[in-house]
Amino acid sequence: MLKTHNCGELRVEHAGQQVTLAGWVNRQRDQGGVVFIDLRDRWGITQVVVDEATSPQAHPIARDARSEYVLQVQGVVRVRPAGTANPELETGEIEVVAQNITLLNASRTPPFYINKEERIEEVRRMQYRYLDLRRPSMQYNIVLRHRIIKFLRDYLDARGFVEIETPILFKTTPEGARDFLVPYRLQPGKFYALPQSPQQLKQLLMVAGYERYFQIARCFRDEDLRGERQPEFTQLDMEMSFIEREDIMQLVEGMMIALVEGVGTNKQLLWKPFPRLTYTEAMEKYGSDKPDLRYGMAAVDVSDIAGKSGFGVFQTNVAEGRPVKAMRVPGAGAVSGTQLRKDTAELEDLARSAGAKGLAWMALPTDENDEVKGPIGKFFTVEQKLELFERLEARPGDLLLFLSDRCEVVYNAVDILRRTLADKLNLLDPNQFAFIWVIDFPLFLWDEENKRWDPSQHMFTAPMPEDLPLLDTDPGKARGSQYDLVCNGYEVAGGSIRIHDRAMQEKIFPLIGQTMEHAREQFGHMLEAFEYGTPPHGGIAAGIDRLAMLFAGAPNIREVIAFPKTQTGSDIMAHAPSPAEPGQLEELGIAVVIEEDKEDA
Ligand code: ASP
Predict the structure, then answer these.
(1) Predicted confidence band at 582 (pLDDT cuts at 50, 70, 90)?
(2) Host domain of residue 329
(3) Does one domain contain both 424 and 488?
(4) What is the whole-number distance in angstroms between the Cα of residue 541 and the centre of ligand 1?
């Protein structure tokens, strides 16, 4: 080793020891006869003192050293002179008095500071990702991610799970996105598909009798890169045999609690056990199947009261079966009249952006003798208002928002209003974890464009046993044996009990618009496997990137992935994707034809 110690470990008890350190120049201060260098490696920073009088060899190297030069320093540890200790550094009570320094490598001036946290344009960070990753905050994130993965591996290993790798070159494994296709030189005209998840393979491992499988698995989905998505991402993928929904939920819940408590990031679980919401409850109350429950502002149905009010829009909507829902925003009504008009106008714009035709509101005065503010107040009798306030548990100074429209529009608006208000009102504490389970999803969702049912999870999800008859009569009402784990508004894991019977699986295909012929061509191996003693089984997959992001308190998953793609799916450091060489295409028997309008995309 070129070092005997790392830059974070020397303490007072090492005083007098001869040591060798190696690392990067975090900072250099030339004070004439004496040069100070803060030497940094992954573990910390140690101050090196280089005195011209006592270290004639080391001094010129130290004097010429610039930020990010790589040095090896031999010297002796000494306690810093009284009054010069640095309490900000773990090694702040000592310094290393250099005898010899070797310049291991020089560095150009980096395009941004490594030794200072500052806002850097993301494009620049991505272009020089190796320098970005050298920054201590990124090293923290990447090491934290490693610790999370290590914890999960150990946890599952201790419970009889086996990690099994499954192929990256495979056949379509649909999860609702497009496949990435990979041509193959030895079989021109044929393509592998990169797995959107190891779904089929892990089910086949259950057929193969492994009973408890997991994998830190890379998944590939070619989909529109909205916000949080990456074309490749990592899942903790799991599957178990001879279990019911409850078993897997208990196991994963225990694992998450242990992870929060074990990985040591001081995150606070808001509750355990994790509450459970049905899909319908989640949508009705929060307008989302992954609600953030760090804060309230649930939507409450007030159709009965509002329908009786004198407000025409509410009367008509209720009469025609469209609900009126109200949300209570604590304290948001206790502002000046001008501010209130401005705030509510902004909220109304937001509701409109979600498709709503408008947003009605009432603000409760802080002084009991004052009037309720807001344009719709006059349409409600005193008794109706009191009934409303009681139902919403409203308190003086609260703002009440009212939405009325088709259910989907109300859901969308409630969701966006809740998320925006929580942010504005500073209700998003990244150190609090609000885990919840969402269960009883519909098995299918109607795809209006293609006029068919789409699996709400994937085509291997089993219906709830009691809903089986609905597949023949009213498939839209059938619930799937599904479960999603949600934390702070993110779906962090999702899974289901699977179909393990050929006849049942074959029943799903026509419902989701697949001909039997096509289904057998694509999934014949699954159907066949189901005929060879397939045990009842189920599983789940947790998003490692999202979990690491939440644990790191990072604003997006790119902060916890070493080499992520940009929001346009590019690697701008290595310039991928890039055109293939003509020779490569020829070998593959591929001709690239690009329509003009797609050329710059
Ligand atoms: N394969 C599913 C997914 O990627 C998870 C599962 O059902 O286990 O979302």
Answers:
(1) very high
(2) 295-428
(3) no
(4) 5
